[in-house]
Specification:
With 285 residues, the chain is of the alpha/beta class. It has twelve helices and ten strands. The protein has two domains: 216 residues, Phosphoenolpyruvate-binding domains (TIM Barrel); 55 residues, no CATH class. Helix 11 crosses helix 12.
């Protein structure tokens, strides 16, 4: 499945140092996994985590789940060794934390070669440079690091995420301009399904491809929120049919539910159906 055509509704962080968690992830209904060597791994376990993760990925069993490895920053004592290690792992992409400029991606690409790079967007500098970062030839995806960003902004936590909207919008614009995947930040209250649902719907409405998760309990809510609903699928089919009927007859204007249907609406409808089909295919693998 083409990387940009596949679903990225749920992207779960898994500590790279915990064999039990790595094993459990093989059976979770997530679209992608971020195998974390950074924040989720204590300092004293960072070197051992590389070998544990490499062994787990070599053993396989993750099916069609997209496999991303987040390394420590290249300015840390572990970053360069992490990057070298990931090139020898069965990973689909490497995730660099705290990307502030394209130069950070250049430095990583010198180590990782052709391996697709994803960028953690989690600093004010990164927000201001989002367009230049997104345009980097090796970049394939962006991940919002909203916890670190909130710390840097000294912003308050609000249900409507008003303090985050400028940053989310800048990264969305940059990612969409370059055809990248972009996933929203985490929702920290992992037992609050209703709050998670509201934040997922906000992210989906804005245009995010999916959401990063910190706990398996968040997967079902997130998968549902970022998948086309039955109503959206049905509407897409009716829009396509109405447009094709008018095209064939050469007369009139296509109208569905009192709204005119144009080429752009048909394009969106086709994307909706393609996404639903991709989700079905992923579930079947």
């Amino acid at each position: 499945m083409d990387m940009r055509q596949r679903p990225y509704r749920s992207v779960l962080y898994i500590p790279g140092s915990k064999p039990r968690a790595l094993d459990k992830a093989r059976n979770l209904p997530v679209d992608a996994i971020i195998f974390d060597l950074e924040d989720a791994v204590p300092v004293e376990e960072k070197n051992a985590a590389r070998d544990i993760l490499k062994e787990a990925l070599a053993a396989g069993g993750y099916g069609a789940r997209f496999k991303i490895v987040r390394i420590n920053g290249l300015d840390t004592e572990w970053g360069k060794d992490d990057a070298k290690a990931v090139t020898e792992m069965d990973a689909d992409a490497i995730l660099l934390p705290k990307v502030a400029s394209p130069a950070d991606l250049d430095a990583l690409a010198k180590i990782t070669g052709d391996l697709p790079i994803w960028a953690m967007m989690e600093s004010p500098r990164g927000m201001l440079n989002a367009a230049a970062i997104a345009a980097h030839p090796k970049l394939a995806g962006m991940v919002m690091g909203t916890n670190d960003l909130a710390k840097e902004l000294q912003s308050r936590n609000r249900a409507d995420r008003l303090p985050m909207l400028t940053s989310l919008g800048l990264c969305l614009l940059a990612a969409k301009a370059e055809g990248l995947i972009i996933v929203d930040g985490v929702y920290n209250a992992f037992k609050d399904d209703e709050g998670l649902k509201v934040e997922c719907e906000q992210g989906r409405d804005m245009g995010f491809d999916g959401k990063t998760l910190i706990h398996p309990a968040q997967v079902d809510v997130t998968n549902a929120a970022f998948a086309p609903s039955e109503a959206e699928i049905e509407l897409a089919k009716r829009q396509i049919a109405a447009f094709e009927e008018v095209e064939a007859s050469g007369q009139g204007v296509a109208v569905v539910d009192g709204r005119i249907v144009e080429n752009l609406h048909v394009a969106t409808a086709l994307e909706t159906l393609a996404k639903a089909k991709a989700i079905e295919a992923l579930a079947a693998e």
